[in-house]
Amino acid sequence: MCQLSSLMVLDLANNSLSGSIPNCLDEMMTMAGKYDFVVNPLSYTYGFDLSYNNYKEGLVLVPKGDELEYKDNLILVRMIDLSSNKLSGAIPTEISKLFALRFLNLSRNHLSGEIPKDMGKMKLFESLDLSLNHISGEIPQSLSELSFLSFLNLSYNNLSGRVPTSTQLQSFEALSYTGNPELCGPPVTSNCTSKEELSESPSVGHANANFFGTSEFYIGMGVGFASGFWGVCSVIFFNRTWRRAYFHFLDHLKAVIYVTIVLKVRMLLAKSQVELCNC
């Protein structure tokens, strides 16, 4: 199948295909954008192979969850639909090299593993449906870079972590992510703070709460205070130099306090006398 270098639409949905998805999909040159056109990422202009202009047939496809008929604009379609089969294993990373692919539907299978990290490099991606599988891990941050993505369905998998923050991914409804209990962040939930804190250190917080509520904490605090107090007193009592320094410090502190109080009292008295004279 990978030798079909000019293939534009691969639709094998609603069969009983089993096994894994081939790792050689990147050899489909047309879907990889190497044969029929070259994309200018700045202007999004295309230069097509003239041989495709003679293709006049039309197809009824389901690229975004709805049936659509492609006829005159079929030359723009690059689609892989393997939905509703019995495929298993991981999504091959080679699929991320199909830079001309616009629609990918792998829903209703038994796929596992993680979503390929480099899917964000497929800049022309318009539709991605991976629902009803066993895909785990986090949603790749690169998906937030798909500016043309208008349909996304990741529901009913085992995805976890935070939904990457971007205008694109937050624009989809929560139904696109439903069925992933470990997924958090808008639009699934308001934030991930409480979930992350609980998942990171539930045992630590519980242990701290129990420790501060026990009698051992108060006994330890009392013993520590008594040990520190009598330790300082013993040093002052047995060491003459420290004892002299300590009492000298107390005398100096007493003198400072006395002078400060006297000055404050005199200032208050002088102020009150001035106020009485003004009256």
UniProtKB/TrEMBL annotation:
Residue intervals passing through the bilayer: 217-238
Predominant location: membrane
Localization in the cell: Membrane
Highest taxon in the source lineage: Eukaryota
Any Pfam family the entry gives: LRR_14
InterPro entries according to UniProt: Leu-rich_rpt, LRR_dom_sf, LRR_R13L4/SHOC2-like, RLP23-like
Residues in Disease resistance R13L4/SHOC-2-like LRR domain copies: 76-177
UniProt keywords, alphabetically: Glycoprotein, Leucine-rich repeat, Membrane, Receptor, Repeat, Signal, Transmembrane, Transmembrane helix
UniProt topology in membrane: Single-pass type I membrane protein
GO CC term (a single one): membrane
Family: Belongs to the RLP family.
PANTHER family from the UniProt entry: LRR RECEPTOR-LIKE KINASE (PTHR48063), LRR RECEPTOR-LIKE SERINE_THREONINE-PROTEIN KINASE FLS2 (PTHR48063:SF98)
Protein name as annotated: Disease resistance R13L4/SHOC-2-like LRR domain-containing protein
Taxonomic placement: Eukaryota, Viridiplantae, Streptophyta, Embryophyta, Tracheophyta
